[in-house]
Structures are given as C-alpha cells and as structure tokens.
Design goal:
Radius of gyration: 18 Å
Mean pLDDT: 97
Strand content: 15-25%
Shape: globular
CATH class: Alpha Beta
Strand order of the largest sheet: 1-2-4-3-5-6-9-10
Order of helices and strands: EEEHEHEHEHHEHEHEHEHH
Largest sheet: 8 strands, mixed
Number of strands: 10
Length: about 290
Amino acid sequence: MTATIRTERVTFSAAGVELVGELRLPDRPEGSPAIALTGPFTGVKDQVTGLYAERLAREGLVTLAFDHRGLGESGGRRGHEDSEGKLADLRSAVSLLTRRPEVDPGRVGLVGVCLGGGYAVRAAAADPRVKAVAGIAGAYNSPAWFAEQMGLDAYRAALGSFLDHYDEYLPAVAPGGGEAAMPGDEPYAYYGTSRSASPHWSNRVTRGSLHSLMTFDALGAAPLLADTPLLVVHGEVDAYCPPELADELLGRSSGKKEMLWLDCHEHIDLYDVEPYVTRAAQATADFLHRHL
C-alpha cells in the first residue's frame, strides 16, 4: 500500500526530560498499528530514523521518530549516551502512541536501527505493551562479548579510562583516522558528509558515553522477549555491528522470529543506500502488518 501522510510535531516527557518528535500519520481509519523508532549512536530524527519512519508510514503504519535525550531538539545533557534514560524515552514514546486516537493501543511496536536495535530489544523485553520488535543493522551489545573479544583486563582498563574522563568530549566522527567515538572512514562517510546533513546533529559526545555503550547489555534481554515477535534484518558484512551478535540474538529469543540477511558491503548501507533500505523497510512493514 502507499498511503497519504500527514506529519505532526509532538513534544512529550520522559523522567522529567522534554523530548521532541515527529508523528507520521497515514490517511487511514482509526485503530492503526503504530511504531516508535530509535536509531544510531548520536543520531537524530531527521537522519536514519526519519527515513525509515517515512517509508513505514507510507506502508500504513503510524510512526514516531524522535530525538532521544541529549540529542537534536530534545532536552537533557548534551551529547551524552544515557542508557537507562533512553529506555525511559522509549517507554514514554510507547505511552504517547497508545494515547493517540489514530492508534490501536494493542498494536504498538518498536523498530531500532544500529544501536537502536539493541535499545528496541531491551525496551520490548521490559514492556509488554510492545507487541512486536524489529532491528535493522542492529547493535546487540554484550559486555561479556566485549570482554571476551578484548580480553577482560583490557576491557576493564577501557572502562576505567572512560570513567576517569567521563565528562570530557571527543568528536563523534573524524576524518583520516583521527580520534573519535565512532572511529574509521565508514562512520565519517555518513556523519561527516552531506549524507547525514541536519541542523540538529552535533559532532561531539562525552567519553562517559563510551562507558554506557560498553556496559549496555542488549543481547541478554533476548530471552525476556518471551513470545514477542522479533525481526532481525542485518547485513552479511558489517564491521561495526557484528553479524554474529545478530545471529546470537535470534538464537536466544524463544518466540516467533524472522531473519533477513542482506548482501550489504558496509554497515551504513542500511542507513541510506539502495536497494538495501527499500528491502529492509519492506520486510519490516510486512512483518509488522503480520504481527500488529
């Protein structure tokens, strides 16, 4: 289906922080299925989540893309990754959707892209109001996996360094191999260029944010999804969100689950590159219409 879309700016609060988002409302009867979207590390609503929100709204889903606390137009500590705060943001986003007259409160789901994939899983595992969850190029972080890959002593040393410099800022991305929270050419190819152009995105993040990332456990939430339907869309090649963790997430979940592997060349192919975005969005829309 291809729906006519109306966009509405909304504000709502989560744990005392004001959040700003955009609702996309298809022209269809009341009682529609709805989703909230959560996206990449440092991302704002007019980047990746906004793109997917538009695509999914045109498939007949009410969508909410919003700026998490500390990012974009929302309130909160600037450029700081607050894991528990972001989970509170998602709970409030679900609450907003359940109160909308256009939405059937029993047909609400979550969609996460990149780091948002892990947040969507954790949020769905703790919120029975979420009836389906999808991750696209998801980062299913696991502290135990990080420690195994790095070596426990190196992992703990990294955490100590982040805590020692918790309030300092560093660039989110940098060219030419410069120090950055998201190092390397690939993140810079998206955030450091016109591909991600947004007046609301800022190229800085606290070092404490890296402590949050390295201690956030998304993978461990998989068994707690119970019978919540799960879709995992992932690139066969992904240097930033390991495919093995996407596969492990699916294996640990016990409910209805679906997997779509795409022949991507880079992680950021699923941010804005065709045909990958269309294939991911269509698979996600089909999944949500089956389960919401």
